[in-house]
Amino acid sequence: MGLQPGRPVILDVDTGVDDALALLLAVRSPALDVRGATCVAGNTGLEPVVQNTLRVLDVAGAPHDLPVAARWTAAT
């Protein structure tokens, strides 16, 4: 019997401490197949969130072509 494929997921993060840990664990988990990440502004602006996300994914060993998307719109 072979290994079961991981559950495909896309993570929506603001990559503070909690989301950084979640990214690390998700990328390294055989139970998950991380297909991408979406970045949103949280306790900081969108640009630092994207940079933090890319750094964490690199440290976690995620593929370099893993899609990372970001968008910000002002609340109306």
TrEMBL record:
Task: Tell me the ranges covered by the Inosine/uridine-preferring nucleoside hydrolase domain, including all copies.
Answer: 9-70
Q: What InterPro entries has UniProt attached to this entry?
A: Inosine/uridine_hydrolase_dom (IPR001910), IUNH (IPR023186), Ribo_hydro-like (IPR036452)
Name one cellular component (GO) term: cytosol
Q: Does the keyword Coiled coil apply?
A: no
GO biological process terms held by the UniProt record = purine nucleoside catabolic process
Q: Which GO terms describe its molecular function?
A: purine nucleosidase activity
Keyword set, alphabetical order: Glycosidase, Hydrolase
Superkingdom classification of source: Bacteria
Name of the protein this chain belongs to: Inosine-uridine preferring nucleoside hydrolase
- Which species is this record about? Cryptosporangium aurantiacum
